Amino acid sequence: MDISGFDLSFFAGEQMKQLMESAFSLKVYPNPATELLNVEISPTDTCQILFELIDLQGKVLYNKTIKNEPVMQIDIKDFAEGSYYLKVTQVDNDQLFRVEKIIKIKN
Predict the structure, then answer these.
(1) Cα–Cα distance for residue pair 72/9, rounded to 1 Å
(2) Per-residue pLDDT at 13 exceeds 90
(3) Which residue ranges form the domains of the chain, and what is each CATH number?
């Protein structure tokens, strides 16, 4: 899936700061990662959450929707070494919740 027109400069703006101050809590670890990326979100009973892993060209390499899962693992062992963005969106209202920069390093 390609998201043409995806503006990566968004991640440095004021909107991004507001997203970081929302009621949700998100932990992504380890970062940098080699094989598995753990993602914790709380509270877990919030709503359906869409996770997308996006490369620096704006191409979505991974997406998964979850509900009521305290910890999710993303297998990144086959991804190239480099930087990616993890985009987290509430499905119910299509609201962007958070974006995390992820670093993939060699196994």
Answers:
(1) 27
(2) no
(3) 8-104 (2.60.40.1930)
Q: What is the pLDDT of residues 51-99, one digit of tens each?
A: 999 999 999 999 999 887 888 899 999 999 999 999 988 888 777 888 8
Would you tell me how many other CB atoms lie within 10 Å of the CB of residue 69?
Answer: 13
Identify the pLDDT of residue 75: 94
Cβ(79)–Cβ(8) under 8 Å?
A: no
Strands (E), 1-107: 25-29, 36-42, 49-54, 60-66, 71-75, 82-90, 95-104
- SS (HEC) of 53-80: EECCCCEEEEEEEECCCCEEEEECCCCC
Q: Would you state the pLDDT for residue 2?
A: 44
Burial 36-52 (b: 16+ CB within 10 A, else e): ebebebeeeeeeebbbb
